[in-house]
Amino acid sequence: MGRITHKTGVNPLSDVFGTDLTDEEVRVKTVEFLYDFSAKLKWSDEDRYIWRQRFVENTAPVQVAKEVGRSRGWLDTRYSRLNKKFDKAIKKWWNSHTA
Asked: In terms of CB atoms within 10 Å, which of 17, 20, 71, 91 comes out highest?
């Protein structure tokens, strides 16, 4: 799943979701959070699907490109742009919720 870990391998969202959660509970809550958070972004259904499949589900880019009827190059470019938008939105969210 995406880049939601620090160099220590600890998910920084574990502090947001609550203490004393197992790794599996944090993983499940992280996936739920990412789906909910991405639903609030002003993206098309296709963009949300692409981002979720690549970032959250770690689906191979060739498979996602085939599923959406696009070339691998197009998908890679679109995913990169979506990640930049996500990074900006999540930083804003993080700063407002952890300050």
From this structure: 17
Give the closest residue to 37 by CA, choosing from 92, 81, 76: 92
Rounded CA separation 23/26 (Å): 5
pTM score above 0.90 = no
Tell me the residue type at 59. T
Determine contact, residues 58/89, Cβ cutoff 8 Å: no
The token duo for 66 is 């085939």
| pLDDT by position in tens, the chain (length 99) | 554 544 455 666 666 777 678 888 888 988 999 999 999 999 999 999 999 999 999 999 999 999 999 999 999 999 999 999 999 999 998 888 776
Sign of CA dihedral 76, 46, 56, 71: negative
